[in-house]
Design goal:
Shape: elongated
Radius of gyration: 22 Å
Oligomer: single chain
Largest sheet: 6 strands, antiparallel, barrel
Mean pLDDT: 90
Distance between the termini: 22 Å
Strand content: 25-35%
Strand order of the largest sheet: 8-9-12-11-10-13
Structural class: alpha/beta
CATH architecture of the largest domain: Beta Barrel
Low-confidence stretches: none
CATH topology of the largest domain: Elongation Factor Tu (Ef-tu), domain 3
Order of helices and strands: EHEEHHEHEEEHHEHEEEEEH
């Protein structure tokens, strides 16, 4: 998917009539419920904190048609409730509607919540109830837990998309092609990384998705250094792309040490086979609808 432009530098704030306010890390299914309440001149106000590791700031615009404006929490958290609303009305003079989640609080010491927002703001306030999927509350912190524990299938269900990271290619050990399978080695910054192990993934190069497996963790059978390596199936690809995307779908196995390179190679081919079967079955399921 090609990343949308960050429209926040292109849209005149004087035209904005509705805003959704929140952290919006992950841009997940519950966040999308807020965005549905925005009008055609809507915008997203993303409050930035150190916890934004599912979809860091520069990648968030990909998941919304609305312009996103960023506010650093440490720079506004001292404001009393009325001062925060004054700031919004000054920056968005035509503001008529604010959309927030059920647990929204703001201002100094988070001392102002839904009722205070309704009392202070003279326009419409829409509050979205807690959103659940399969009786699981959809919150960024809960999604982070699933990803950290390697349960990408549940995390993706809550996200309503495959969890995706961006990385830059770096030089690897140089033994993959010779001793195992060719891999693209990555360095990844700012994103939450899944639990160590091997995953069924899709690797995106130049906006083309390829089925793949991806390893994260310490290479305990070889040099014991930490690595993120992805192998694309049945393709002889020379990558000259600076930025690489990886979508995670299912954990195939934990990271473990093998007695010999031969054992490791056999396991890699077994993982490839399992991943191919996963994507084949996934495509069959999609085609039945």
């Amino acid at each position: 998917m090609e990343m949308k432009k960050n429209f926040s530098t292109l849209v005149n704030k004087d035209t904005i009539t509705s805003i959704a306010i929140g952290g919006f890390d992950g841009m997940h299914s519950a966040h999308q419920e807020l965005f549905k309440q925005l009008d055609s001149n809507g915008a997203i106000l993303s409050i930035e904190s150190k916890y934004a590791t599912l979809t860091p700031k520069k990648y968030r615009q990909e998941y919304s048609k609305y312009p996103i404006y960023y506010y650093v929490l440490d720079e506004i958290k001292h404001l009393k409730g009325n001062k925060f609303i004054q700031l919004l009305k000054k920056e968005y003079p035509k503001l008529k509607k604010i959309v927030v989640g059920f647990d929204f609080c703001f201002g100094k010491d988070r001392g102002y919540c839904i009722q205070e927002l309704k009392n202070i703001f003279d326009g419409e306030v829409i509050v979205i109830d807690e959103y659940k999927i399969d009786n699981i509350p959809v919150h960024s912190r809960i999604i982070r837990e699933y990803i950290s524990n390697g349960d990408l299938e549940t995390a993706n269900k809550l996200l309503n998309k495959a969890y995706k990271i961006y990385g830059t290619q770096v030089k690897g050990q140089g033994i993959g092609t010779k001793s195992f399978v060719p891999t693209i080695n990555l360095i990844v910054e700012n994103f939450l990384l899944p639990q160590a192990g091997v995953y069924a993934t899709k690797t995106i190069l130049n906006d083309i998705e390829y089925n793949s497996i991806t390893f994260l963790g310490h290479r305990v059978t070889t040099d014991n250094s930490y690595a993120i390596e992805t192998h694309i199936f049945d393709e002889n690809i020379i990558n000259n792309n600076y930025e690489i995307q990886i979508k995670f779908y299912k954990k195939l196995r934990d990271n473990k040490k093998f007695d010999t390179y031969k054992d490791l190679k056999e396991e890699i081919f077994s993982n490839i086979k399992e991943s191919k079967k996963y994507f084949l079955n996934k495509n069959k399921t999609i085609n039945t609808y």
